[in-house]
Amino acid sequence: xxxxxxxxxxxxxxxxxxxxxxxxxxxxxxxxxxxxxxxxxxxxxxxxxxxxxxxxxxxxxxxxxxxxxxxxxxxxxxxxxxxxxxxxxxxxxxxxxxxxxxxxxxxxxxxxxxxxxxxxxxxxxxxxxxxxxxxxxxxxxxxxxxxxxxxxxxxxxxxxxxxxxxxxxxxxxxxxxxxxxxxxxxxxxxxxxxxxxxxxxxxxxx
Length: 206
Ligand SMILES: Nc1ncnc2c1ncn2[C@@H]1O[C@H](COP(=O)(O)OP(=O)(O)O)[C@@H](O)[C@H]1O
Ligand SMILES: [Mg+2]
Description:
This protein has one domain (about 10-205): Rossmann fold (3-Layer(aba) Sandwich), CATH 3.40.50.300. By secondary structure, it is of the alpha/beta class.
């Protein structure tokens, strides 16, 4: 099944690795795209953030059956915060999405995990050829060598679009803890660039 209505684009934020910024990015995407946040991770970080935010709607869907029901009823954009790991239904989740956003750190092992994620994306594309994949480099140490690192990574990681890089910034930790979204400052500027490219990539799918 897939949600192809232009009014209900589905963005899955996923990575096999934990602690790479999936929930951080998912809540910001939901906030700025005015999307329903769907928390597929039983750990419930997105749910917790949404409860603190007071107004971002979040639906907890710890099973694929529940997520499927939410997707089927969707009338507006959805952002799915996925759990780490190669769960039984990860390919189903990806196949139901228009865009998978993969936050990753830039280390060798991290990029290997992204390589595996992109294999799963390829598998999901069998049911839905339009599915796009975007990479966000998270907690980058310096923007100085980033261009070369990204170029090198993308050479190996085919079929993925670079969506931007976020520095390692305390502002992200504080915003998450407080149920806020970034609205100004250097962290916001980086995030804004990611949002702009995400919107653009999503338009290409629809
Ligand atoms: N760019 C960043 N700079 C600093 N800390 C970050 C950044 N992105 C995420 N974090 C922190 O890293 C931890 C893991 O992030 P989280 O979004 O929960 O990852 P995941 O959902 O992939 O497990 C959290 O404590 C979060 O606040
Ligand atoms: Mg998470």
